[in-house]
Write a structure and sequence with these properties.
Largest sheet: 4 strands, antiparallel
Radius of gyration: 18 Å
Number of domains: 2
Number of helices: 1
Low-confidence stretches: none
Structural class: mainly beta
Oligomer: single chain
Bound molecules: zinc ion
Number of strands: 12
Strand order of the largest sheet: 2-3-1-4
Strand content: 25-35%
Helix content: under 10%
């Protein structure tokens, strides 16, 4: 089974691709190729959603990674820590924000909802996600 991904951003040497499982990569450094964009990479494993986000990879073929949250357009990426009362919000992909007591961190901005929580009983998610296709089943 091969899993193929297309680079959606210009590759930058050296750490341009997720490590592990890489079968082959055909990259374009100077200008995007007409049919393959900035390059095509092939893996023997499915990449995680974090990896495809981190490395700007779009899925060409192979099973979709199972998202941790149903797909939607993230309007606000924020959560409240009930231990210290702070509300923290991630405003961009690599904006990692932690509350003042350290119980809760949010990350991912408008791209994906990432949470790091020590005590889930003291955590309230306040993120707002818009689902354009509510009629579509979420597998
Ligand atoms: Zn806190």
């Amino acid at each position: 089974m091969e899993y193929k991904y297309r680079l959606t951003a210009r590759p930058v040497v050296p750490s341009i691709l997720p490590p592990g499982g890489l079968i082959r990569a055909d990259l374009c450094f100077d200008k995007p190729c007409p049919d393959s964009g900035w390059g095509i990479t092939v893996y023997d494993r499915p990449l995680t959603e974090e990896e495809t986000n981190e490395y700007h990879l779009g899925i060409v073929s192979g099973p979709q990674p199972r998202p941790k949250h149903p797909r939607g357009i993230i309007l606000r990426n924020c959560a409240k820590c009930l231990a210290c009362g702070d509300t923290v919000e991630s405003l961009s992909v690599h904006d990692f924000v932690t509350c003042s007591c350290g119980n809760l961190s949010v990350d991912g901005g408008n791209d994906y909802l990432k949470r790091s929580v020590k005590d889930f009983s003291k955590y309230l998610d306040l993120s707002v996600t818009y689902y354009p296709q509510l009629s579509e089943p979420e597998d």
